[in-house]
Automatic annotation (TrEMBL), chain A:
Family of the protein in this entry: Belongs to the binding-protein-dependent transport system permease family. CysTW subfamily.
This protein's UniProt keywords: Cell membrane, Membrane, Transmembrane, Transmembrane helix, Transport
Protein name: Phosphate transport system permease protein PstA
PANTHER family: PHOSPHATE TRANSPORT SYSTEM PERMEASE PROTEIN PSTA, PHOSPHATE TRANSPORT SYSTEM PERMEASE PROTEIN PSTA-RELATED
Molecular function, one GO term: phosphate transmembrane transporter activity
Provenance organism: Paenibacillus agilis
UniProt cross-references to SUPFAM superfamilies, sorted A to Z: MetI-like (SSF161098)
Membrane topology designation: Multi-pass membrane protein
One record GO biological process: phosphate ion transmembrane transport
Amino acid sequence: MNNLFQDANRQQISGRRRNDLIWRILFLGATMFGIVALSALIITIITDGIARLNPDLFTNYPSRRASASGMKSAIVGSLYMLCLMAPISFVLGVGAAIYLEEYAPKNRFTRLIQLNISTLAGVPSIVYGILGLAIFVRTFGLERSLLSGALTMTLLVLPIIIVASQEAIRAVPRARRDASFALGATKWQTVSRSVLPSAISAIMTGVILALSRAIGETAPLIIIGAATYVAFLPESLFDTFTVMPIQIYNWIARPQEAFQDLAASGIIVLMIMLVIMNVAAIMLRNKYQKNI
Amino acid sequence: MNTRNKRFVMLTLIMVLALVVTACGGGTSSTGGEGGNAASSMTGKLDIDGSSTVYPLTEAIAEEFNRENPDVRIAVGVSGTGGGFKRFANGEIPIANASRHMKDKEKELATTNGIEPIELSVAYDGLSVIVSKDNDWVDKLTVAELKAIFEPGSKVKTWADVRAGWPNEKIKIYSPGADSGTFDYFTETINGEAQASRNDEQVTFSEDDNNLVQGVAGDKNAIGYFGFAYFEENKDKLKAVPIDNGKGAIAPTYETVQDGSYEPLSRPLFVYVDKGMLQEKPEVKAFMEFYLNTIGELAQEVGYIALPQAEMDKEIAKLK
């Protein structure tokens, strides 16, 4: 009788172990799928693009000859864009998050706003381009300028920044606020001296990740009229501009193979920029986890 | 709130600010002074937009023009022919690239806004009907056969349906997408109506001509069409089919497109300029004159075919 139980048990256990192994292999496969695809992509891009990854790429303007072509105006355009977008989206995004989390009453209206923001985070980027064209280019008369582009991109990243900042603020323990209030602090004192300092690294992580998404966007900027051939650097906020993804897209569509290799070099530069931003985000997150 | 945390936050903010400032500062340092041989003192700004097909031509011209006039700030966009015309008709840009004629509606809009468009042919493109190098049976196609293959509701399923004696293999069609001027021109010329095209499971559409090249090159039963430049760059993988329009089969080359014998698939490419701006702004006039006088030498380099000199002279006369 005893033996019988043991056998059944053993069978059950080995069955479960087999099951476990199958799941393990499935999950490993799921992980490897992405990794293999990504490394294949990176390897082809590096082998195609490494040859043209020279100073000319950074110092020359676009040219009809792939060998003389560079992406100076595009790199500078992307950096300007980042410089404009970062402060605007930080102030607006974090401000909105503070309001929604700390000040706004929890009623049907704020729930509706919340729902809208979450929905906006999933809207295709080209829609923001159309919105930007209508509002900034046409209505505000900012023309097809760097400023219009930066504001359009701000719209694109705002929902992501708001959601990320809200989560960061929500993660600050209730006790901190209570302690602050107990000492007689006002709402603003509590927010500025207790909540925000605890949440800021997580907020920064969200902001940087959102900005790195914007750096890779092409569609909305093409809609609002960023040019493709720009042989000068923007001198004011109202100047015409181009950005890296647009330049890369144009090179890929060219018939000449040399341009496609050049596009690969451009992708490497863009990728390095994104990796730097993501590493910064990870470092901030690690710091944050230690401190809470 | 501990001070360590506070200090860290400050540090992060300062770092981000520093990054932003250095990035911005780095950009401004080297404006002007580019190009070196400042031959002229002409300044001004030229915004050009429109067809992505014409873009390489205008880009080549802008590059050369900037060599002589480094202070004219030229930006060329690729909003497509329709998008470019819209901006042109609104008076936003003095020059528009176009791979088709301006439609009456677009002309009306321009006229109401006080814009007087001048159409200038700048080069030819030879739309090339291409098959894979491995396809050893297609020696030529007549315009009627092309129509049979590409027309809406086409009955052609296999190559044998095109011409008796050709293999009984399913024909695969690669076509530019509906947004491209190439598609407009081909459907209008071959099928008789712009945008009217076969659209069943045997057709693959792509907005990226390099995709079409890959598709046709890898399949000996495939046929497709695109601009001459894409054929020229992939000659080792592709074969351009000679087209017979009743005067014998003629394959697209620089010569046959230029002298007009490759027809009906040679198409002119245009640049539109506003007459008012041409007269008012010296940089617009200088740029357009430079364009028409120089494009003959540059067209072939970017994969297009120059107009015969006699015809180019007529275009130049339109600027007077």
